[in-house]
Amino acid sequence: MPFTNSIQAEVIDVRADVPKSEDIFFIDTNVWYWLTYSKANSPSLSQRSRPNAYQINDYPNYFQNAVVAEATLYCSGLSLSELAHRIERAECEIFGGERFALKDFRRNHPLQRSQVVAEISSAWNQITSFARLLSLNVDELTTNAALSRFATQLIDGYDLFLLETMRLHSVTKVITDDGDYVTVPGIQVFTANQNVINAAARQGKLLSR
Hints:
There is one protein chain. The chain is α/β, with parallel strands linked by helices. 50% of the residues lie in helices and 11% in strands. The chain has eight helices and six strands; from the N terminus they run ββααβαααβααββα. It has helices at residues 29-36, 53-69, 79-96, 102-108, 110-130, 140-152, 157-168, 194-202; strands spanning 10-13, 24-27, 72-76, 132-134, 173-175, 188-191. The radius of gyration is 17 Å and the shape is globular. The two termini are 27 Å apart. The mean pLDDT is 93.
């Protein structure tokens, strides 16, 4: 689907960019999922749940280049909840199909549940071995700021707090496939999402470094 919203961020195509040692990146949960979950491209997943080829190729390539360049990589503990949800749902689908009830899977299949825990633990251990954890105090000030952002930017509930984490730690570069981030002014979105890249080019927001 073409991206039709107004782009407020600067957009960088990760396929045409070389990470630098001075880069400071926050990495979004969707990228961590493709990087660290061993079954992200399982043939047992439905077509809707499986990633596109670019998602499991372009982001890992850029990530590895960032590691080699010794760029600074950041993550948030808040990503663990989103990551755990996605991995558990994928494991449920692999086990019982697309319509298998998640709560039944969680409660009544202890062996598979232990595999879910192992997958999530493995993914999180990988993340924290590469990236530094940024803290966020979810207090009244933070939640009010998140609500204000929600009123003006096309961001979902998870990303509201990830963006607040970035703001409070003065991080402006995010690696993500999520086109919602480009509705946020004052940040640079590093992406391989072609719809977003095409829209950024049309709107004069595509940046070459």
